[in-house]
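step: validate -> pass
step: tokenize input -> pass
step: predict -> running
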Amino acid sequence: MANIEQNRDRWNKTYDWEGAGDEWSVDFGGTEALWFFIVYPRIHRFVPARTILEIAPGFGRWTQFLKAECESLHAVDVSQKCIDHCATRFASEAHLQFHVNDGTSLAMIPDNSIDFVFSFDSLVHVEKEVMQAYVSQLARKLSADGIGFIHHSNLGGYPVRSKLVKRFNKLPSSSRATISKDEKVKLAANAVEAVLSINLQGNRGSSMTGELFTEYCAGVGLRCISQELLNWGKGGCLIDALSVFTRRGSRWDRADQRLKNRRFVEMSSVVSNLAKLYCD
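step: predict -> pass
step: emit ->
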């Protein structure tokens, strides 16, 4: 997976943002369907919230919904291009603030001020060092009863398969370009993925796991109270995690609960069909 500098360059320079991020919602029938059928049901207990922090908003795919669920919202992204776009897109929304960071810092967010932390379909691309840095700071940024919902990678839970990702990422970019154009290699790669039942093309952080997220929380006085491990795009391997966390002793604090959801890929096709009936 790309490091912080490579991610910054990609989202600032090389990625064209032609679909403004909505292109990643196509498999679910669109962004509206993905939000109301997949994301919102998982966070409905936590919103509205007085102050929301969104990490890595991109072009505002989720900001457009979160802005109605709070009195104030801070959005933090490593990409200046993304923050500039959001600032323009939501210029009429006085309760929204947008910040460019270095890829890990939340120094611009006041301590004890955040009631709900949200990140979906963004931090799946970061490695464990970035995730640990964010979690360690969120222990200070959350309010007394603050709570968070973060979508992150669990690819590190498959170490043998993760090695394949690391080896591919170590190839020179020119070699990768050649490989991607070679149809025979493409077919072979798809065959390997099918046999392993894993999505190796999702650019997931190969060092990050659900267990590590729980450990990071415990180390700074937070508790991961629920974790849903799920597959994404294709294959049965649970390469993603949806983690909910809070301060120890908050009103949300409880023993952790875990779910292995191996049917998430199937849900995308169901939601896509529902979108034809119920979404714009």
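step: describe -> The mean pLDDT is 91.
step: cleanup -> pass
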